[in-house]
């Protein structure tokens, strides 16, 4: 480690101390000096981004995180904070994508369990915001279209005129068109109607929707953190079948994971996080 690197590391430590005391401006200055000395060290950029996050300076969070990702694409913190920044700037699609990347990295070969739960919650909220935005737009468009169609069908008291001029059968047929129109719009609005989370997408122990599902030799799927806690604190056996079970026997259930992601994409409101 050269003199510049040593000085940069000392500046990082100073920045950490300032940050712990809530002196975010001083911390930013320290990290900036460290970056000037060693611009290719990703944690210096993510540390400064965290300070900008505390100040709600989201454009600077975005800039620092993008630089950190350029230096280290596997930086969980950089993807996570970039996702938060993009969401704050109402760039929902890219923000959700960055949070997904952070979640996958957090669960990867070097898992960061302390961050996974926080990232998951932010991702669930982000999916809800993304759905809410598109749902509001769809609902408004459907409302306008429905009113236009109904107006066209009822112009000049059309039903009364039909009954008077052509008889009740023609009027009744026209009424069926109203009923069919209503069914069409109800069907179109189904994707914006709340839905309960299916049981098969929930852990049998926690009863909560899966975040990181793993399957045991018994064929039963559990939430990874929950079954690991059971094995550590209760015993090495399957809590449902009572058969012997070792940690090494647990395998990621990719099918259920994809099903959860698909469900949240379509029904994000069913798992809105506070």
From TrEMBL:
A GO cellular component annotated for this chain's UniProt record is: cytoplasm
Q: Which UniProt keywords apply?
A: Repeat, TPR repeat, Transferase, Ubl conjugation pathway
- EC no. given is 2.3.2.27
**Annotated catalysed reactions:** S-ubiquitinyl-[E2 ubiquitin-conjugating enzyme]-L-cysteine + [acceptor protein]-L-lysine = [E2 ubiquitin-conjugating enzyme]-L-cysteine + N(6)-ubiquitinyl-[acceptor protein]-L-lysine
Q: Which InterPro entries match?
A: CHIP_RING-Ubox (IPR045202), TPR-like_helical_dom_sf (IPR011990), TPR_rpt (IPR019734), Ubox_domain (IPR003613), Znf_RING/FYVE/PHD (IPR013083)
- TPR repeat ranges are 8-41
CDD domains with a match to the protein in the record: RING-Ubox_CHIP
Return the SUPFAM superfamilies for the record: RING/U-box, TPR-like
Q: In which pathway does it act?
A: Protein modification; protein ubiquitination
Q: Where is the U-box domain?
A: 196-270
- List the GO biological process terms: cellular response to misfolded protein; positive regulation of proteolysis; proteasome-mediated ubiquitin-dependent protein catabolic process; protein polyubiquitination; protein quality control for misfolded or incompletely synthesized proteins
The record ties this protein, via Pfam families, to: ANAPC3, TPR_8, U-box
By its UniProt entry, which Gene3D superfamilies does this protein fall under?
Tetratricopeptide repeat domain, Zinc/RING finger domain, C3HC4 (zinc finger)
Q: Name one GO molecular function term.
A: protein-folding chaperone binding
Return the PANTHER family for the record: E3 UBIQUITIN-PROTEIN LIGASE CHIP (PTHR46803)
Any idea what this protein is called? Answer: E3 ubiquitin-protein ligase CHIP
Species this protein is from:
Tripterygium wilfordii (Thunder God vine)
């Amino acid at each position: 480690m050269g003199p510049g690197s040593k000085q940069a590391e000392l500046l990082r430590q100073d920045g950490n101390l300032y940050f712990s005391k809530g002196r975010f401006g001083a911390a930013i200055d320290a990290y900036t000096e460290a970056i000037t000395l060693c611009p290719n060290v990703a944690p210096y950029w993510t540390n400064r981004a965290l300070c900008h996050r505390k100040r709600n300076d989201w454009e600077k969070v975005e800039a620092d995180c993008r630089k950190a990702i350029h230096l280290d694409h596997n930086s969980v913190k950089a993807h996570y904070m970039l996702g938060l920044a993009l969401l704050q700037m109402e760039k929902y699609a890219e923000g959700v994508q960055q949070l997904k990347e952070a979640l996958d990295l957090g669960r990867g070969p070097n898992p960061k369990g302390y961050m996974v739960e926080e990232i998951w919650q932010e991702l669930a909220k982000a999916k809800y915001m993304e759905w809410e935005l598109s749902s509001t737009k769809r609902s408004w468009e459907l409302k306008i279209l429905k009113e236009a169609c109904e107006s066209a069908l009822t112009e000049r008291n059309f039903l009364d005129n039909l009954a008077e001029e052509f008889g009740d059968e023609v009027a009744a047929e026209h009424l069926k068109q109203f009923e069919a129109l209503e069914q069409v719009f109800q069907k179109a609005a189904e994707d914006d109607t709340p839905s309960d989370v299916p049981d098969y997408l929930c852990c049998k122990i926690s009863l909560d929707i899966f975040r990181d599902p793993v399957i045991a030799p018994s064929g039963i799927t559990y939430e990874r953190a929950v079954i690991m806690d059971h094995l550590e604190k209760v015993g090495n056996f399957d809590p449902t079948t009572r058969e012997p079970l070792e940690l090494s026997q647990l395998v990621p259930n990719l099918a259920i994971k994809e099903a959860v992601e698909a469900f949240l994409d379509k029904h994000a409101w069913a798992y809105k996080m506070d």
